[in-house]
Write a sequence for this structure.
């Protein structure tokens, strides 16, 4: 997922004055896996600061900021 986000970035979208927000929607049961993976790619995670939407089986969605996974 992070590779896909990074591959779609461009210089303008990554500048501090731009207002791009990166978002990921994943199944809620991936929460622990994402936390584990973020540990090995903190720099990229902090650079993108993606908002993560955890989607449960019943359709409920929980919004989590990037810092939640660090």
């Amino acid at each position: 997922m992070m590779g896909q986000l990074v591959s779609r970035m461009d210089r303008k979208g990554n500048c501090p004055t731009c207002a791009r927000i990166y978002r990921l929607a994943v199944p809620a049961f991936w929460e622990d896996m994402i936390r584990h993976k973020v540990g090995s790619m903190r720099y990229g995670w902090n650079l993108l600061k993606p908002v993560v939407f955890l989607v449960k089986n019943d359709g409920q969605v929980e919004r989590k900021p990037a810092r939640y996974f660090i």
In short: Strands lie at 23-27, 51-55, 61-64. The helical segments are 2-7, 31-38, 42-48.
